[in-house]
Design a protein that fits this description.
Elements: H1 2-26, H2 36-47, E1 55-56, H3 66-76, H4 88-99, H5 110-119, H6 126-142, H7 145-155, E2 157-159, E3 162-163, H8 165-173, H9 182-190, H10 205-218
Parallel strand pairs: 1-3
Antiparallel strand pairs: 2-3
Helix pairs in contact: 1-6, 3-9, 3-10, 5-6, 5-7, 9-10
Length: 226
């Protein structure tokens, strides 16, 4: 009986590793139509009795302004082009700040956020964090930085029911993602911690201050070379 259970566990693990690696390989080239978060949001809208808001259009990275790429690096992951998926220095700093009672920060990299958004459910648990680390390693090895940035900018929530750079640019500024100015890009990056609460345009003083800070950091990002 014990041997049979162990055999089943072993087969399940083989299936998991095989399917997870296959899915990462496929999504190296195939646009990702939706994410678990998008599905969750639609269900939330339905449960609340509201019309589901879903705005998402995939565009290649060359159609997304370098300004937005610089803005998310400046605001979310300053070492994105240097690390291998994990910024241990940022994680250590976040851990110290959290222990001191300061505002909670996760220290997650763009790679970790992408792995979580594409392959996992929302929430906090050791199992999910472990799987997040696993998928982060996979996408770093198989996708590389350029594809990670492309998937990230096409998939993350950038407004209430708004996903990806193209629809965010249209929603907030009535233009395409190609034509985002540095200030507009900083506006989108500034609301990422809570895109359902904050506004990238007609922003609060708090978000305007975040825009100013992001723009200052953007000047030091330099030319993006993947």
């Amino acid at each position: 009986m014990k041997r049979k259970i162990l055999r089943c566990i072993w087969k399940a693990m083989l299936w998991f590793f095989g399917l997870s690696i296959l899915s990462v390989i496929i999504f190296k080239w195939v646009p990702i139509p939706f994410t678990p978060l998008m599905v969750t949001r639609i269900i939330e809208f339905k449960l609340e009795g509201d019309d589901a808001i879903y705005s998402h259009k995939w565009v290649p990275l060359e159609d997304i302004s370098p300004n937005l790429q610089k803005a998310v690096i400046a605001s979310e992951d300053g070492n994105f082009l240097k690390h291998n998926g994990f910024d241990f220095e940022a994680m250590q700093k976040a851990f110290k700040n959290n222990n001191k009672g300061k505002r909670l920060k996760g220290g997650s990299t763009i790679s970790q956020q992408t792995a979580k958004n594409i392959f996992l459910w929302q929430g906090r648990s050791y199992i999910r964090k472990g799987l997040e680390a696993y998928f982060t390693v996979l996408i770093e090895l198989i996708w590389g930085k350029e594809r990670i940035m492309e998937v990230y900018l096409n998939s993350i929530e950038m407004g209430n029911g708004v996903y990806g750079a193209q629809e965010a640019a249209r929603h907030w500024y009535s233009k395409t993602a190609t034509n985002l100015t540095p200030r507009e890009a900083a506006g989108i990056a500034a609301i990422l911690p809570n895109p359902r609460k904050f506004k990238a345009s007609n922003s609060s003083s708090y978000i305007n201050r975040r825009k100013d800070k992001i723009m200052r950091v953007m000047r030091h990002v330099g030319k993006i070379e993947y």
